[in-house]
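So, could you explain the following?
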Amino acid sequence: MAVRKTVSMRRFGGDRAGEEAAGRFFRNKKVTAGKIVANWGERTGEACRGRHVLALQDTTEISITTTAERRRGLGQCGHGNSYGVLAHVMLAVDADNGACLGLVGGEIWNRESKVTTPLRNRGLADRESRRWLDTAEQAKTVLAPAAMTTVIGDRESDMYPIWARIPAAGVHLLIRAQSDRRLAPPKDDPEADGGTLFTAAARFPLTGPYALKLPARPGRAARTAAVGIRFGSVVIRRPVNEQDRTLAATVRLSLVEVLEPGAPEGAEPIHWRLLTTHDVTTVEDAWRIVGWYQLRWTIEQLFRVAKSQGLGLEDSQMATAGGLMKLAAVAIKAACIDIQLVQERDGVYGLPASIAFSKPEIDTIEALSPTLERQTDRQKNPHPARSLAQASWVMARLGGWNCYYRPPGPITMRRGREQFYAIHRGRLLGSTRKKDVRLL
């Protein structure tokens, strides 16, 4: 799927036999979306060893064009008459350079029926929002080799249980605030009204203006915003309607607020309130938090590659909701590999090939690399053995890149990977035949 840039079984199967094999895989009841998702982080932990990792999590709707007569068991996934499945994903990136290190975990589900019980009458275990907490817990296991992990989420993940349960030694949180939470009163006056989060932020000293670069997004052109920044320490209180009374009564956090007082006409002003368990005592600390939060765009890029700007997941004709959930789980993994290969074509992140390729595939890359080099220095593979950059160079060469003109893009990489996997299958077949001859 990653090689052929499609979720169409007819196309990524390669031929009729491949298409039928893919169909059997997705119809197999022993194959579940949950098992595929559980495999997402298999290679990620080792890639994160010794690094400060940002564990970005977000949810995307995979909306499928359908009719009442051909609903395929799909539930509502958005507002109005949108049907499909939902995917909650956590992606690991390096905090220092933004390198995509791989998937961590998540969940893919289908809303089979409408929930009629009011939200306030449901415990966290019975809410879809539990995914934010469950996935953050997964990160503690998958990313255990990391030197430090910071779980990052947008406003929907601003829930008191996540603040009270997830922080641990080496595990931090950074979340955009959604609620104007009640704050604890001062220690010297416990009977006083502690006020609210947003009111407290307004009292912090404002510094700036500073230039904040905003990348282009759907519906928004790239621009540089002149913003002010303020920060301070707050102590949030457990909400009175929180059902789990075992949670800590208060949690101490740092608050960083970024605001744009004079946005250009027609542009939405920047206003972020970022809560974090990291200590923030200087402007430099505050800007570091803002920089980490901005790397959330990487997971948005992942969703675009899986859907509209890459694999075309939302155009799938998969016959059942269960099959679409499995297909989505595979497509998100394929999209992640695609991002990693293009990112590492210049070798700037120093990632190992093992985050995207199996050991036999890496052995084939090692064998191929010398055969693709030529006489000039520019036509030599400059990257370390068994690195992702070396693998990317091999894919680019197989795809027709001559080492002289502009860096290879996704199309060149796709062509190269098609060539590579054909060579790799032939190499494995040849190795198997040699073993058979020796046995005879």
User: Anything to note?
Assistant: The first helix runs from residue 9 to 12.
